[in-house]
Write a structure and sequence with these properties.
This protein has 171 residues and is α+β, with helices and mostly antiparallel strands. The chain has one domain (2-149). The chain has helices at 45-57, 68-73, 110-124, 164-170; strands at 2-9, 15-23, 81-83, 97-99, 128-129, 137-138. The termini are far apart.
């Protein structure tokens, strides 16, 4: 573990607050001993663009959420031990280590812990993981992003179709 110090500044670059964060030193972990894999779920830019374009076209409301706190509350699936920070070494037990109960920012186990928690919440809320991009969650599954109604009927009358709606969606 180590301390990260930052200074919060105002518009005139004057320090208005000192911040200190205790983080696990992820780069000192040894392969095969204290981690399984590095994990970073990131949506591809194409998926984000398609989602935003379709949501804007359909005038959907999009919600954004801040997940910083999840890094501090993620549940670890394995036991993780960290050494005492240099400024907080116990005089009575200098060789003791800490057993982490929750994921700690900077720990390699933190991203999968928060992703598992977020995924389970979204799935419980009726979302499904995308078939192409598993980091994109979809509330209502359709055959293609352009489908407006799940059931389509054959037009026996053959009335003319207005192409402007379709053309505006695909550019």
């Amino acid at each position: 573990t180590k301390w990260i110090f930052k200074n919060k500044k105002d518009e005139s670059s004057s320090v208005i607050q000192n911040k200190a964060t205790l983080v696990a030193v992820g780069y000192s972990q040894q392969e095969g001993i204290d981690y399984d894999e590095t994990f970073a779920p990131v949506a591809r830019i194409e998926a984000i663009r398609l989602f935003l374009a379709y949501a804007a076209h359909k005038d959907f409301t999009i919600f954004q959420m801040d997940i910083k706190a999840t890094f501090l509350n993620g549940i670890l699936k394995e036991e993780v031990y960290v050494g005492q920070p240099p400024s907080f070494v116990s005089k009575q037990y200098p060789d003791h280590v800490y057993d982490l109960d929750k994921a700690l920012y900077g720990l390699k186990q933190a991203p999968p812990a928060w992703y598992d928690l977020l995924s389970q919440f979204l799935i419980d809320s009726g979302f499904q993981k995308g078939s192409i991009d598993i980091t994109l969650f979809i509330k209502k599954k359709v055959l293609t992003p352009m489908v407006e109604q799940a059931k389509l009927k054959l037009d026996l009358v053959r009335k003319p179709v207005d192409h402007t709606d379709y053309q505006s969606m695909i550019g």
